[in-house]
Amino acid sequence: EDQVTQSPEALRLQEGESSSLNCSYTVSGLRGLFWYRQDPGKGPEFLFTLYSAGEEKEKERLKATLTKKESFLHITAPKPEDSATYLCAVRAFTGGGNKLTFGTGTQLKVEL
Amino acid sequence: DGGITQSPKYLFRKEGQNVTLSCEQNLNHDAMYWYRQDPGQGLRLIYYSQIVNDFQKGDIAEGYSVSREKKESFPLTVTSAQKNPTAFYLCASSWETANTYNEQFFGPGTRLTVL
C-alpha cells in the first residue's frame, strides 16, 4: 500500500528564517511526486511536480527536491504570506487512473 | 478565465437527505476527481472519471454516487447511506494522456455539514 508521511505536522518560523519540510514516501514505482499549497477553507494550489531522483524545481522562495525515499520543500527567507498548509502527494504505478495518495500536510506559520 | 468551479460553497443537510455537489471545469481536461478532506487526514479519493460516461470507485466510494454525462461536469451525490458525510469536498481535474502523469488542479471546495 502506498504511504506518504509529512513532517513536521506544524512549523512556526520567524520572517526570514529558512527551513525545510519533509515528505517521505513508500510506493511501488513512483510516477510523480506533487507539492500543493492550501490556504484555510480553500482548495489546494499546485506548486511542483517531480518525477525522478535528483530533480529540483524552484518558484520564488520555494525549492522542491526529490530522492528515492523522500522529498523536501525548502523555504528560503519566508514571509508571512507563505503561511499555509503544504501538501505532498505521490502517483504510483497502479495501472488504473491518475490516482494520488496524499500526506496529511505541514501547517506553516510565518510570523513577523 | 479557465478553472474549476464548485457549488455551493457551504451546504447543510438533514439526516436522511440526499444532496448533490456541483463541479464544472472549462480547462478541457479529460479526467475529473472527487476527494474528501477531514481534519488530520490526507485527501481521500471518492470517485474519478477518465472519460465521459465512465467512472471508477476510489478508496471511499460507499454512500456516494457520480455521473459524467459531459466532459465539463462531474456532480457528486452524497446519499443517506453515507453515515458520516460532514467534511470538506474537493473536485479536481487533469489532462489524461498515455504514459504521462499530470498534476491535478483543484476547485475551491464545498463544505458539507449534517444537521
Key descriptive features of the protein:
heterodimer, A: 112 residues, mainly beta, 6-stranded mixed sheet, 5-stranded antiparallel sheet, 0% helix, globular, B: 115 residues, 7-stranded mixed sheet, 4-stranded antiparallel sheet, 11 strands, 48% strand
**How many strands appear in the DSSP assignment of chain B?**
11
Protein structure class of chain A: mainly beta
What's the tally of helices of chain A?
0
Shape of chain B: globular
Helix share, percent of chain B: under 10%
Instruction: Report how far apart the termini of chain B are.
Output: 35 Å
Could you give a short account of the major beta sheet of chain B? 7 strands, mixed
Work out the strand percent of chain A.
over 45%
Taking Cα atoms only, what radius of gyration of chain B do you get, to the nearest Å?
Answer: 14 Å
What does this structure look like?
- In chain A, strands 2, 4, 5, 9, 10 and 11 form a six-stranded mixed β-sheet that branches. A five-stranded antiparallel β-sheet of chain A has the order 1-3-8-7-6, with no helix packed on it.
- The model of chain A has no long low-confidence stretch (mean pLDDT 93).
- Helices cover 0% and strands 59% of the residues of chain A.
- With 112 residues, chain A is mostly beta strands.
- In chain A, 33% of the residues are buried.
- With 115 residues, chain B is mainly beta.
- Helices cover 0% and strands 48% of the residues of chain B.
- Chain B contains no helices and eleven strands.
- In chain B, the strands form two sheets. In chain B, strands 2, 4, 5, 6, 9, 10 and 11 form a seven-stranded mixed β-sheet that branches. Chain B has a four-stranded antiparallel β-sheet with strand order 1-3-8-7, with no helix packed on it.
- In chain B, strand 4 (31-37) and strand 5 form a beta hairpin.
- The interface between A and B is medium-sized, with 26 and 28 residues.
